[in-house]
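Pinned message: reference record for Protein RADIALIS-like 6
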Amino acid sequence: MNKFPDVLCGWSWEENKLFELSLAVVDERHPDRWEVVAAMVGGGKTAEDVHKHYVILLEDLQFIESGKLDHELGEMQPWIQVDCTKSVCWTDDDNNLLVRLDIN
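Predicted structure (tokens):
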């Protein structure tokens, strides 16, 4: 699982798991919530980094819950819809993953 796709702008699988865990245990009313979460995640993540990651997570959840996610169970779609108004971190590893999956 160390080869988690780097589609989350530099967040490893382990960092994402620590991020999820820290959100579960750090009260959202804690005055230093993002600093505490950053310390729990480690890896040099700052309070600003984890807060931005949280905002992205909320946007993803809102998109999924809105019903705009175009998918059918058991059917692989040959395309994905991307919001081109936002910056996307795309690496050679992401490209290699798609090549290995033979997605055209």
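Pinned by admin. Summary line: The domain at 1-70 is CATH 1.10.10.60 (Arc Repressor Mutant, subunit A).
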